[in-house]
Amino acid sequence: MIKQLDLEGTPREIGEKHGREGKGQIQVSLETYEKLFYGYHQIDWKEARNRALVHLKAIEAYDPELIEEMEGVAHGAGVDFEDILALNARSEIALTGRKDKIFSDGCTSIAVTAPACDETIIGQNWDWKGSQIDSLLLLRIKQEDKPDITMVTEGGIIGKIGCNSAGVAVCLNALITDKKSDEVPIHLGLRAVLNSSSFHEALSKVNNGQMASAANFMIASHEGEGMSLAANVEVSPFGIDLMVEPNGTAVHSNHILSPELLKNLADLNEFKYTDSMIRKLRAEQLINTALAKGETIDENSFKKWFCDKYNYPNSINHYPNENAPEHRRSETVFSVIMNLSKKKTLFCAGKPTIDAYEEI
Fold it and tell me: Is residue 145 part of a domain?
């Protein structure tokens, strides 16, 4: 089961406890990304730290408390601040550049709300290097004047996938493109979404080119019975596109859907058609089949969908594809389902099976 940390206090205090009690997971993250940056980009760790530092000015202007928390993580773990900054900018270091040298985590995200479902449920399979299961942390964060957060992350990274006490949740779909900026790394944008008390506040944190690289943030917000929304928000250095389906469903994998983003970015996902697009179409098929049969969509529906092995190994429940280049092999590392109506979160470490989910 995933290691759980209860964090409370000032940003520095929250970070220090994360660093101190999650030191082992942080070391796994540091070792993983040092090897990956060098193996795929021939970037040593010193260069990775330097590349992360170009974002520092933007982060300070965006939210200086994020700097304080990362400083706390570094102090608690006994590493340099630049090490933690590099982890939080790992997507910007890894996801842009030459097509044959890019690697990324993959994933399939799904959300349902009215009229498809009486409840608001959002979740995803997170696909990446299998060894990163040893880096996972469940963080429960209490902050002054902000919602409480429940978040699954890699050790040392202060923003990722989760939900908060204001009924806002976010999932992440990596996008591989040819451009980035020196603005705020997307993982810190995810934290800003989880710090938000409403959908419009969350959007304000990622709009207008504030994010340094492209990604999809699937955001759901539940404000009470009959008041909810789920949307794909593709973010980029050039702005965002907000995509909402009228039937109350949202699905995303790892290719750009927005024609607006494609005006400024090239989608470099070389497995768009054989992997990412099939996962998206399959997820939509599973949802539409359930709706056509009049089935009640609930957490058990999500469990079945996230266990799906159609198009194995490039399935929603993803397995390593030995025919893919080594740098593009990934597998499902965890699965999470968040029912915002019930304030209930289910988590599965590793590849999901129906009975492997536990309530957290």
Answer: yes
The answer to whether residue 252 is domain-embedded is yes
- Side chain identity at residue 80, one-letter code: D
The CA distance from 251 to 16, in Å, is 36
Q: Within a domain: residue 174?
A: yes
Q: Break the chain down into helix, strand, coil percent, rounded to 5.
A: 40, 25, 35
Angle at 193 between CA 308 and CA 77, to 5 degrees: 90
User: Taking residues 13-23, what's their average pLDDT?
Assistant: 98
The maximal CA–CA distance of the chain, rounded, in angstroms, is: 56
Which of the 8 DSSP states describes residue 341? T
The answer to whether residues 196 and 166 touch, using CB atoms and an 8 Å cutoff, is: yes
Q: Is 261:238 a contact under the CB 8 Å cutoff?
A: yes
pLDDT in tens, 134-187: 999 999 999 999 999 999 999 999 999 999 999 999 999 999 999 999 999 999
CATH of the domain at 134: 3.60.60.10
Has residue 35 been placed in a domain? no
pLDDT in tens, 47-87: 999 999 999 999 999 999 999 999 999 999 999 999 999 99
Predicted TM-score of the model (pTM) = 0.95
Place of tokens 């206090």: 9
| Number of domains present in the structure of the chain | 1
Domain range for 295 is 101-359
